[in-house]
TrEMBL record:
Catalytic activity: L-histidinol phosphate + 2-oxoglutarate = 3-(imidazol-4-yl)-2-oxopropyl phosphate + L-glutamate
Record-level GO BP terms: L-histidine biosynthetic process
Superkingdom, taxonomy of origin: Archaea
UniProt similarity note: Belongs to the class-II pyridoxal-phosphate-dependent aminotransferase family. Histidinol-phosphate aminotransferase subfamily.
Name under which the protein is recorded: Histidinol-phosphate aminotransferase
Enzyme Commission numbers on file: 2.6.1.9
Pathway(s) of this molecule: Amino-acid biosynthesis; L-histidine biosynthesis; L-histidine from 5-phospho-alpha-D-ribose 1-diphosphate: step 7/9
Domain named Aminotransferase class I/classII large: residues: 31-350
InterPro entries assigned to the protein according to its UniProt record, in alphabetical order: Aminotrans_II_pyridoxalP_BS, Aminotransferase_I/II_large, HisP_aminotrans, PyrdxlP-dep_Trfase, PyrdxlP-dep_Trfase_major, PyrdxlP-dep_Trfase_small
Keywords: Amino-acid biosynthesis, Aminotransferase, Histidine biosynthesis, Pyridoxal phosphate, Transferase
SUPFAM superfamilies per UniProt: PLP-dependent transferases (SSF53383)
Gene3D superfamilies per the UniProt record, alphabetical: Aspartate Aminotransferase, domain 1, Type I PLP-dependent aspartate aminotransferase-like (Major domain)
């Protein structure tokens, strides 16, 4: 037999890990700092760690009760009903559920370029088609409703990443509403707030009570430091109450993920430490890096270094892993995750050395 035609599908390429790079170079992993994948440098919430250990003896049970517990906790946090919370295996899982709920074969989605590859991947998995709107360097990567609407042509789903990866910019709530207002009544606007904890802008969740054409994506991978357990969720309009049960996989998030997520929600100190650390690191990179940087509302900074591949490779040889943004279509830019103070200072020192050579 033959597989379906996958010629339009692309591979999601995650940043390489420390162990992988250390093996390649024949060096000790302890020599490296990884600032390439926007992970939390402070690790997971200590409360989540404890919950993970305590749940280990219970993983022979299906996660029905703990799924309900986390759903209720998130509903309480965001002041929505339980049925508006769609738990998933990572933010990408939530994107798949939204695609299942909205896309018929041949429907088009509108995605940012550069942007998160999985928007288009998920649409194609569900037999949709993909159009793009540009986030351009010539205006400093500004994110405006006009930029999106200039490219809009009746797409079924429009993706707005706010804060945007890899640039760090964000949409205002007014811009989100303008896109939704001017789009067709059957268009869903998905606001991806994976980095939402790192910005002081209000969440688009505040719009859900008034509208049925906006959904918001959130994750535990960034501020909560739980990337490895794969836990994310969508917050959807009240009118969608019955849809989640029809599109989710059986037990959409594991028992360990649900327990860890519930515990992490109760650890304000860990999130506050992470957010304050990110604010410091962003400012330090803006002030000290010998390259143009862009305003960021995420846990990373984008820098124009001239030749991203050359700079990223040179930094790697010196023990600092950063993201070459050539894969985003930005061959002159690198993305540097906000690390601890020690990690951030080391990364800036190494990059300044490389840039001076």
């Amino acid at each position: 037999m033959e597989l379906r035609d996958l010629s339009d599908h692309v591979e999601y390429r995650a940043g390489r890990g420390i162990e992988e790079v250390a093996r390649e170079l024949g060096r000790d992993p302890a020599e490296f700092v990884k600032l390439s994948s926007n992970e939390n440098p402070h690790g997971p919430s200590p409360k989540a760690e404890a919950a993970i250990r305590e749940t280990a003896s219970e993983v022979h049970r299906y996660p029905k009760a703990v799924h309900a517990d986390l759903t209720a906790a998130l509903a309480d946090q965001w002041d929505v009903s339980d049925k508006q919370v769609w738990l998933a295996n990572g933010g990408d899982g939530a994107l798949d559920y939204l695609a299942r709920a909205t896309l018929a074969p041949g429907d088009r989605v509108l995605v940012p370029t550069p942007g998160f590859t999985y928007y288009g991947m998920s649409a194609r998995f569900h037999h949709g088609e993909v159009a793009e709107y540009d986030v351009r360097t010539d205006d400093g990567f500004a994110l405006t409703a006009e930029r999106v609407l200039d490219a809009y042509d009746g797409e079924r789903v429009v993706y707005l990443t706010s804060p945007h990866n890899p640039t760090g910019h964000r949409f205002t709530l007014d811009a989100v509403e303008e896109v939704a207002d001017r789009a067709d009544e059957d268009t869903l606007v998905v606001v991806d707030e994976a980095y939402g904890e790192f910005t002081d802008a209000p969440s688009a969740v505040s719009l859900l009570d008034e509208r049925d054409d906006i959904a918001v994506l959130r994750t535990f991978s960034k501020a909560y430091g739980l990337a490895g357990i794969r836990l994310g969720y969508a917050l959807t309009p009240p009118a969608w109450a019955d849809a989640y049960a029809r599109v989710q996989t059986p037990f959409a998030a594991s028992a360990i993920a649900c327990r860890a997520g519930t515990a992490a929600l109760d650890d304000d100190e860990h999130v506050e430490q992470t957010v304050e650390s990110v604010k410091w690191a962003r400012q330090y990179m803006h002030d000290e890096l010998d390259a143009r940087t862009y305003e960021s509302h995420g846990n990373f900074v984008l820098a124009d270094v001239g030749d991203a591949t050359e700079v990223a490779e040179a930094a790697k040889r010196k023990g600092v892993l950063i993201r070459d943004c050539s894969s985003f279509g930005l061959p002159e830019h690198v993305r540097i995750t906000c690390g601890t103070r020690e990690e951030t200072e080391r990364a800036v020192a190494v990059l300044n050395e490389v840039l001076a050579e």
